[in-house]
């Protein structure tokens, strides 16, 4: 370990960050949270994910434009600060950090639940501990090794989703042996397409936003990406189309094959349930293994993102310099170790809450993704006001797309507040007030570098 703070090394390419973004977004929110979203909205969950996908598309285009204009940026903080000031940058950095440390804690428990499919007698907390240790070790090696690991894990989960869609469509529309084609009947025959009305759709939006969260991870890879002005737009374009397709099509298959009011009655993921319906020997075990690796992939990405936020905060002198020290392979070891502590907190929570830990943490995470996207949209609007020359990667139809996204997010936030458990809302507000109090108590009214 070198005692000096050093710069991170640019070793990642556009294929790495594209797969990282997919790795962060296609995780527990899709494979485990899908049951919760379907239970809330019924078949209308397809509409919820379509709306979320459009908003995501508008937000990410704005993020990419700001990233290309600010080539010296290392993370969100550097993108937001010139336009919204020090407090907004501080707030965004820490709620983003909070989002990922809670997320990896939640997903360690989800990974343990999937392992319990094979080892039902082993406690959730024991399995979560083993998974947490593996993810920690992967992140402590070189960034390139991490990126390659994440690339192949993400590719595996994408392949699994594609197979799921193909097999699901075959079951829906092709009769074979004793199986009759199901068709679209399940979309409407159980109290209609909107069984829980608009309230159910709004409630599901919190899960939807949480599920899509992680795509904005592209904004924290800036210091370690080769040729960011070319890599970022390419990654954004490729990531968005894939994420929207990988959410909407699987949900269409699930709610068409399984009556929506029965999805939440089974302990395993709806993806495993559908593969059981196919009748291929061991298909459910294969799918469960792939989902497990997908969740570990999302944890992997989350630990990377949260550790880089700590690293940049330390470089700027806002937290102890210890967290800015890097290894010989340019890995911020102390930042990674600090963030892994959340994994073991998740293990402790699961010791008492068991498999319900994920549901407890998911609500607060949904709020955080909403706030992050709102701040990015506001910064993008402000960035054009201060712009003196044409952007190299301009967002078309500006400001309409960003304004639509911002207004939609604010409307969803109001709806979520009105329909979400008061305990989740109060807990989230307390966390945000603590972050705000920390900023003002430290006197961070201007850039202060130690």
TrEMBL record:
Keyword Zinc-finger tagged: no
Keyword Ubl conjugation annotated: no
Localization per Swiss-Prot or TrEMBL: Cell membrane
Chain segments annotated as transmembrane: 46-64, 100-119, 125-147, 154-177, 197-223, 244-262, 274-296, 331-354, 360-379, 400-418, 424-445
Keyword terms, alphabetized: Amino-acid transport, Membrane, Transmembrane, Transmembrane helix, Transport
InterPro entries, per database record: AA-permease/SLC12A_dom
GO biological process, one term: amino acid transport
Ranges where the Amino acid permease/ SLC12A domain occurs: 16-442
Topological type in the membrane: Multi-pass membrane protein
Principal localisation: membrane
Gene Ontology CC: one annotated term: plasma membrane
Pfam families for the chain: AA_permease (PF00324)
Protein name: Amino acid permease
């Amino acid at each position: 370990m070198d005692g000096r703070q050093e710069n991170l090394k640019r070793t990642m390419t556009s294929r790495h960050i594209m797969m990282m973004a997919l790795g962060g977004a296609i995780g527990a929110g899709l494979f485990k949270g899908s049951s919760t979203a379907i239970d809330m909205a019924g078949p209308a969950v397809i509409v919820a994910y379509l709306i979320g996908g459009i908003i995501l598309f508008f937000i990410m285009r704005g993020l990419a434009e700001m990233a290309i204009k600010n080539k010296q940026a290392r993370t969100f903080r550097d993108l937001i600060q010139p336009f919204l000031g020090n407090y907004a940058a501080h707030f965004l950095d820490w709620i983003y950090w909070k989002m990922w440390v809670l997320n990896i804690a939640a997903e360690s428990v989800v990974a343990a639940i999937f392992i319990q499919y094979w080892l039902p007698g082993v406690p959730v907390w024991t399995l979560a501990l083993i998974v947490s240790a593996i993810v920690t070790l992967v992140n402590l090696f070189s960034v390139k090794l991490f990126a390659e690991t994440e690339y192949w894990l993400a590719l595996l989960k994408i392949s699994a989703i594609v197979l799921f869609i193909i097999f699901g469509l075959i079951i829906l529309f092709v009769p074979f042996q004793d199986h009759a084609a199901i068709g679209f009947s399940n979309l409407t025959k159980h109290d209609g397409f909107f069984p829980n009305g608009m309230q159910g759709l709004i409630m599901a939006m919190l899960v939807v936003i949480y599920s899509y969260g992680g795509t904005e991870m592209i904004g924290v890879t800036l210091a370690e990406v080769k040729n960011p002005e070319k890599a970022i737009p390419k990654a954004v374009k490729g990531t968005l189309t894939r994420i929207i397709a990988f959410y909407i099509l699987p949900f269409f298959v699930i709610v068409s094959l399984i009556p929506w009011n029965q999805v939440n009655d089974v302990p395993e993921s709806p993806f495993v349930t559908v593969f059981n319906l196919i009748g291929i020997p061991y298909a459910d075990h294969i799918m469960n293994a792939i989902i497990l690796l997908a969740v570990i992939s999302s944890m992997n990405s989350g630990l990377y993102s949260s550790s880089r936020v700590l690293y940049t905060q330390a470089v700027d002198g806002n937290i102890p310099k210890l967290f800015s020290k890097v290894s010989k392979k340019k890995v911020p070891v102390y930042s990674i170790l600090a963030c892994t502590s959340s994994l073991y907190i998740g293990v402790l929570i699961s010791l008492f809450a068991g498999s319900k830990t994920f549901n407890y943490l998911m609500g607060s995470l949904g709020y955080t993704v909403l706030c992050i996207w709102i701040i990015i949209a506001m910064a993008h609007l402000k960035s054009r006001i201060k712009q003196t020359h044409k952007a190299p990667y301009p967002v078309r139809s500006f400001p309409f797309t960003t304004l639509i996204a911002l207004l939609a997010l604010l409307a969803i936030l109001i709806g979520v507040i009105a329909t979400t458990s008061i305990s989740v809302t109060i807990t989230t507000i307390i966390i945000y007030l603590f972050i705000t109090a920390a900023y003002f108590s430290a006197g961070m009214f201007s850039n202060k570098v130690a």
